[in-house]
Design a protein that fits this description.
Blueprint (H helix, E strand, L loop, with lengths): L2 H8 L11 H17 L2 H26 L5 H20 L2
Helix pairs in contact: 3-4
Length: about 90
């Protein structure tokens, strides 16, 4: 495939594509924002903790998928390494 044909193949995926479901997506997002605004600070804090632990579980599953030879302890060590790296990156921006 020539370079020209490769560039032509990319064209249908432009950013201006709008889904017929966009109004529904926008309304659901609006409802989530309004619900979050009604939450107390304590509830938001606890929700943040819950989201963090859920994200860790998803990341652990991804680490296991990427490294099928890893045991549970190796996966947790890799998660810790990634979290420490992220923290270092945040402090050294």
């Amino acid at each position: 495939m020539s370079d020209d044909k490769l560039h032509e193949a990319v064209a249908p995926y432009r950013a201006e594509f709008k889904s017929e479901f966009q109004p529904l997506i926008d309304e659901l997002y609006r409802e989530e924002v309004l619900e979050a605004r009604r939450m107390s600070a304590e509830t938001k804090f606890l929700a943040g903790e819950s989201l963090f632990f859920s994200a860790c579980e998803i990341t652990l599953a991804g680490i296991q998928h990427q490294n099928p030879e890893f045991g549970q302890e190796q996966c947790r060590a890799e998660l810790q390494r990634r979290l420490k790296l992220r923290e270092w990156m945040d402090w050294n921006e």
